[in-house]
Fold this sequence. Notes:
- This protein has helices at about 45-65, 150-180, and strands spanning about 5-10, 15-20, 25-30, 65-80, 85-95, 100-110, 120-130, 145.
- Mean pLDDT is about 90; it is low at about 1-15.
- The chain has one domain: Thiol Ester Dehydrase, Chain A (Roll), CATH 3.10.129.10.
- About 25% of the residues are buried.
- The chain contains two helices and eight strands; from the N terminus they run E-E-E-H-E-E-E-E-E-H.
- The protein has a five-stranded antiparallel β-sheet. A three-stranded mixed β-sheet has the order 1-2-8, with no helix packed on it.
- The chain is about 30% helix and about 35% strand.
- It is an alpha+beta fold.
- The termini are far apart.
Amino acid sequence: xxxxxxxxxxxxxxxxxxxxxxxxxTVKTSNVLPPDTNNHQTLYGGRLLEYIDDVASIxxxxxxxxxVVTASIDSVxxxxxxxxxxxxxxxxxxxxxxxxxxxxxxxxxxxxxxESGEVSLAAFSFLTFVALSDDKRPISVPALLPDNDRLKWLxxxxxxxxxxxxxxxxxxxxxxxxxxxxxxx
Length: 185
């Protein structure tokens, strides 16, 4: 069981809090059953996206202790198929924070239970969530305290990923004008 600790941050005006990355750590495990698979007997990508959004939102809520909304899913990089009969394991954790936003990493593994028992990395994804007040306005989130050097690297490289998201969001706003019109006019 994780012990939750809060630390006051002087450079954030003294009223902000800092939380360890591990405090948001969330695991979701599920059997891959026939209704979850496609005609190749592998997990539907859409089902995996549902699992990813669910576990990531819980990690974001644990960090912010507030309501959250999914702002973006960067991508899902599928590395190996997740087969019928496998167990899918999703591990999520807040890896970078802004003022009201939280980047969440979801690591997806698969476990073959019946023969080898092998666990392998199947996919990973980064998502961004925004913390909301009861009136659905963005609110501040605690700063992040990496638990070790590997997690510190994730936090430090998070700013670069955030910049890429901002550029992509700007491009999406430009494309909105294009897609607002009929594609065949």
